[in-house]
Every structure is written in structure tokens, then in C-alpha cells.
Amino acid sequence: MTKDWKGTAYNQVPHSKNEIHGDKVAKDFGFKGGLVPGVTVSAYLLHPAAISDGMAFLERGYAHVRVNSPLYDEQVFDINIVNPIERQTQPQSRHQEQGDQGYSAVLVPDGEAPCATADIHIARTKIDPPVRRNDEIGDKKIVPVAATRENMERLRKSGCKAFTYRWNADHEMSTYLRERSEMAAPYSIEGYANPSFVLGISNWVLAANAHMNPWVHMETKSQNYAPIPQGTNLVGEMEVKDLFAKKGHEFVDVLVNIFDVESSRCYASIELRAIYKLRGL
Questions:
Q1: Residues ≥6 apart with Cβ < 8 Å to 261
Q2: Which residues of 203-235 are buried (b: 16+ CB within 10 A; e: fewer)?
Q3: Which percentage of the chain shows pLDDT scores above 90?
Q4: pLDDT confidence of residue 86
């Protein structure tokens, strides 16, 4: 049974190239301090699924996470399960089939309103994954084009570069909690890639295709197909799905599929929504 959970927020990347995670730039935009990465906030909401369902979540789990307001380093928070799904007879969404299980949850910082929400479904059977396109691999040493609307439209029409990453315990996103041992067992004991790293790949591929600073992760819809073992070389292929403006911010929707470099096995698909240009820039 999925249970509520209490944790303490951890900003793994206060010196990130995306300076919204550092105190100075974040405060310039009216925040209290550097923002805990949206992928780490997401990992907190997914933690109960990895505890209760273990490998089933890593192999068949779907999650829709929305980050509505900031979470800061060392803030204590609660993950409250508000709608557990116990083998319902009728599907509630296109990602939920008859016989799925899962839950809805909210992340509530102590003394504050909820700052993020999630809907999680774990399919009864495995889902067919995407097929790798073998997009051209980009060079991380090359500075990408500026994230302007014109350049984003160009990426949408002409396609994006793929980028490679390696999962190991030394990565800066190798844990979503200060104490690694407090993560769910599939990550802390078995060493599989945790959600802050997996979802992080969508951020990194986007940032490698278009230079953004600062920018804000807002929402992900992710589907797991297989756990990622230690030492796996990965490639993320991306396509721009939509571009729009809202309340003075410029948004982008992208789809990133994550594959094994050698075998082309698909590990996860991630639909990411981000503000690539903040109001006033």
C-alpha cells in the first residue's frame, strides 16, 4: 500500500549553469533563494511509488508531475497521498488501463500551500517503447544557439541533436536526498538511476540544443520502460512539440526519449514543459 512520506529538500546543483538554482539570480526574480530542481521535486512525489511498487514502477510506471511554486533547499515537506488507485475496474485516463494501480499526491512544504502535484499509474503489463531514430549526436563543448522564439521554431522544423550521458554513482544527480541511503531501495541499494537523474536528461538535452539562462522546469509526463543499471551509457533524442507564450513567459514543450547507446533499448520517454525565457528578459 502506498503511504504518505516526509522529507527534507535537497538542492544538488546550487552552482548549476542554470542560475535559477543559485541564490543570487533566483532572488533577482523574486524568489527566496535558489530553486530545488524541478526533477528533484518530481523525485519526491515519485518516491512512494518506488517504495511500494519497486521494480514494477521502474519498468511500467507513468507519472504526470506539475511544479506550481518553488521548493527551497532544506525545506521540510510532506508527500500526501490523496487518491490511491487500487486495481480500479475502469480507466481514469488514457495512460491508465483496466487493472492499473497508482495514486495522486501533493507536495506540501511545512507551513505553506502545496507546491507540486503528481498522478502516478503503474500498468499491469509492459508498454511498447519508442524506437530510436539515430539522430545526430551533438558535441556538448559547442555552445548552442540562443533560446529565442526564432531559434526554437527552427529546431522544431529541422530537428534537434541527440546527446549522451552516463549513469553512475558519481553524478551530481545520483541522489535526490542528502543521505543517499534514505532513497527508495531500487536507487539506494540496487543502484538504478533515480528519477532526478532520469527526468534530468530531458532538461539537459533541451539545454544542450538551446542556450537558456535562467530557465524553469514546469511539468513532465514520463513513462518508464526499464530500470537503468549503474554504468549505462545513454542517449537522449529530442523533438520540439509546441511553443507558446503565457503571462509574459515563453514556454516550450519537448519530447525526449532515452535509449541505451549500444543496444538502443528504450528506458524512458519524457514530455517536458519549461519556461525557456522568463518574463522581463
A1: 164, 233, 234, 235
A2: bbbbbbbbbbbbbbbbbbbbbbbbbbeeebebb
A3: 81
A4: 52
Give the contacts of 16 (CB within 8 A, at least 6 positions apart): 22, 37
pTM greater than 0.85: yes
3-class state of residue 279 by DSSP: coil
Q: What is the pLDDT of residues 104-130, one digit of tens each?
A: 999 999 989 999 999 999 999 999 999
Please check whether residue 104 is in contact with residue 119, taking contact to mean a CB–CB distance below 8 angstroms. yes
What CATH number is associated with residue 41?
3.10.129.10
Q: DSSP letter at 181? A: G
Neighbours of 157 (CB within 10 A): 8
Burial class from Cβ neighbours inside 10 Å (0-12, 13-18, 19+) for residue 260 reads middle
Q: What is the pLDDT of residues 124-149, one digit of tens each?
A: 999 999 999 999 999 999 999 999 99
| Residue span of the structural domain in which 117 resides | 5-125+134-277
Order of all β-strands in the sheet with 101-109: 5-8, 76-81, 101-109, 116-122, 61-67, 216-224, 266-277, 249-260, 233-246, 163-166
**Which one, of 108, 113, 87, 4, lies nearest residue 49 by Cα?**
4
Question: What is the C-alpha separation between 255 and 154, in angstroms, rounded?
Answer: 16
Both ends of the chain: CA-CA distance in Å?
Answer: 46
In the chain, the number of structural domains is: 1
